[in-house]
Write a structure and sequence with these properties.
single chain, 213 residues, alpha/beta, Rossmann fold, 7-stranded mixed beta sheet, 5 helices, 7 strands
Length: 213
């Protein structure tokens, strides 16, 4: 783990506080509460989603690939006396059985995974047919001018954001991985740099067919 990775984890909640209050909290409240049954969250980070899971969640498994983040996640689980299971694993290689979850959750994760198509195929694999993926992700802009700036700034964004990409067409990637998008809302990530402001919030259903690619 790099020194920057440790610093990034230590300062993440403080750095995101303004954006969390201005935009993310209400989206988490509306979206995460819909997750039900056996739930998988990928890239749980510091555990920001934990307060928003409802009574319809029968079990919760949270994966996180970074040890510094995992320590903060485990601390938050203990503080909440949560029965959730924390698993140190990347989204691209989930140590979980096929078709074993009813719901999956990804919030500000698909921008950072090293191999987005592979991560989405893994989510597709572990969801049961008809299972749902709930996502909140910043994405590539629809406007050509901002999209060009995202391309230019992406290298800097990756370094500052510890692997975060600001120019990924994530909605299209979800559809290409074998999901049908049933809900989709576009918003702006307030109190964030322009290159990461375009935001999507949605629900996608796992199709029965295998993911392509």
């Amino acid at each position: 783990m790099s020194l920057w990775g440790k610093i990034f984890a230590a300062g993440y909640d403080k750095f995101m506080a303004g954006t969390e209050k201005a935009t993310l909290r209400r989206h988490r409240d509306a979206l995460i509460s819909q997750a039900s049954g056996s739930v998988l969250e990928i890239g749980g980070g510091t555990g920001a989603n934990l307060p928003f899971y409802g009574a319809s969640v029968e079990s919760l498994t949270v994966t996180e690939p970074e040890q510094p983040m995992m320590r903060r996640l485990q601390r938050r689980l203990q503080e909440r006396s949560s029965s959730a299971t924390a698993v140190l694993a990347s989204a691209e290689k989930l140590p979980l059985e096929d078709a074993s979850f009813d719901s999956a959750v990804s919030t500000l994760v698909l921008c950072t995974v090293a191999d987005q198509p592979r991560a989405l195929r893994e989510i597709h694999r572990v969801l049961r047919p008809g299972g749902r993926l709930f996502f909140i992700e910043h994405v590539r802009a629809d406007t050509a001018g901002l999209a060009r700036w995202q391309d230019r700034l992406n290298g800097i964004q990756q370094r500052i954001g510890h692997g975060c990409n600001c120019n990924r067409a994530t909605v299209e990637a979800i559809a290409n991985a074998g999901f049908s998008i049933s809900q989709l809302e576009h918003d702006v990530l307030a109190k964030a740099p322009p290159s990461v402001r375009p935001l999507v919030v949605g629900v996608a259903e796992r199709n029965g067919a295998s993911a392509s690619g």
